């Protein structure tokens, strides 16, 4: 079993990724930590609790701190045009959910859980890297205690989606992302180089609902606003960014990676740009030297990824019992 902490900002595609993690037979979801990004951290935490309740997820939810690593960084408006006013496609999520949250801040929950299961926990972060950077700052030794780190973010050999240079998760807290990229833990970046090639069509989603029952019907309802947003960007359907990062955990063979040190531009017109120095690139000296070689996903078997997502989401019997939180 893969023990996973899911660091997330639900968010429509976050919801699909969460259901994937919950339903996959080889994944034990030991915690959900929330961060701001697709909405405020109050909203993303409320949404995580809502999905926990609706999908009967046992993992505890821990709330992140609502500011970037650099508190002087200017706040950007929430992307309500992508995820809706409620962050979950304007389905009418209740204002409050009568479930408790873990008393620890998200970064402390990450530290405690990694230390409780040394060498066993994979962090999958699909929002801003703020919680991971805070955990690194408070307890640098966790770099040697995690099993791995998988993030959804960045754009190396393609354009960004916030501006030509930057992808949204990285752009939201570049300083945090740079700290995460340069830490000496095993890191894989699943970014726009592969997620923009992975399109779930309306027909794909309808077929999942037909097979998957009430859980997938809720997911479909959440996704319709998101699909409408993508109408002018993909021929039919939506990009499943965050689920791609989750698929990498259980099926890394569906991706082609490139190894090399990574940095994030912090400031200027390319604020949030992710740049990798491939291991075989002869240049320098530079600020990319002497840093850990990390993996960036550059190619993807999109049909196989989409099939694995569909089969997992439609499997209503998977991970519905016997799972406990940290």
UniProtKB/TrEMBL annotation:
Coiled coil: none
Keyword Acyltransferase: no
Keywords: Glycosidase, Hydrolase
Pfam families: IU_nuc_hydro
Gene Ontology cellular component list: cytosol
Entry superkingdom: Bacteria
Name listed for the protein in its UniProt record: Nucleoside hydrolase
């Amino acid at each position: 079993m893969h023990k996973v902490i899911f660091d997330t900002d639900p968010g429509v595609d976050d919801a699909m990724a969460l259901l994937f993690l919950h339903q996959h037979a080889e994944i034990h979801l030991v915690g959900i930590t929330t961060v701001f990004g697709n909405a405020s951290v109050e909203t993303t935490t409320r949404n995580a609790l809502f999905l926990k309740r609706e999908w009967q997820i046992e993992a505890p939810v821990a709330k992140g701190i609502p500011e970037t690593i650099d508190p002087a960084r200017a706040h950007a408006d929430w992307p309500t045009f992508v995820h809706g006013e409620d962050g979950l496609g304007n389905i009418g999520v209740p204002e409050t959910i009568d479930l408790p949250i873990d008393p620890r801040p998200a970064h402390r929950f990450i530290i405690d859980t990694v230390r409780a299961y040394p060498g066993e926990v994979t962090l999958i972060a699909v929002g801003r890297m703020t919680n991971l950077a805070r955990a690194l700052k408070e307890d640098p030794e966790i770099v040697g205690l995690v099993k791995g780190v998988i993030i959804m973010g960045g754009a190396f050999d393609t354009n960004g989606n916030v501006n030509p240079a930057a992808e949204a998760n990285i752009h939201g807290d570049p300083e945090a992302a740079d700290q995460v990229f340069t830490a000496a833990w095993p890191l894989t970046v699943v970014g726009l180089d592969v997620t923009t090639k992975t399109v779930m069509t309306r027909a794909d989603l309808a077929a999942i609902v037909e097979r998957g029952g009430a859980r997938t019907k809720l997911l479909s309802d959440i996704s319709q606003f998101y699909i409408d947003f993508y109408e002018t960007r993909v021929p039919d359907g939506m990009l499943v960014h965050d689920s791609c990062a989750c698929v990498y955990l259980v099926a890394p063979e569906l991706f082609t990676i490139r190894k090399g040190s990574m940095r994030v531009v912090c400031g200027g017109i390319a604020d949030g740009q992710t740049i990798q120095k491939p291991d075989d690139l002869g240049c320098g000296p530079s600020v990319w030297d002497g840093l850990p070689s990390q993996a960036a996903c550059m190619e993807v078997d999109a049909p196989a990824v989409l099939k694995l997502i569909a089969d997992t989401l439609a499997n209503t019997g998977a991970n519905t019992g016997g799972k406990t939180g940290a």
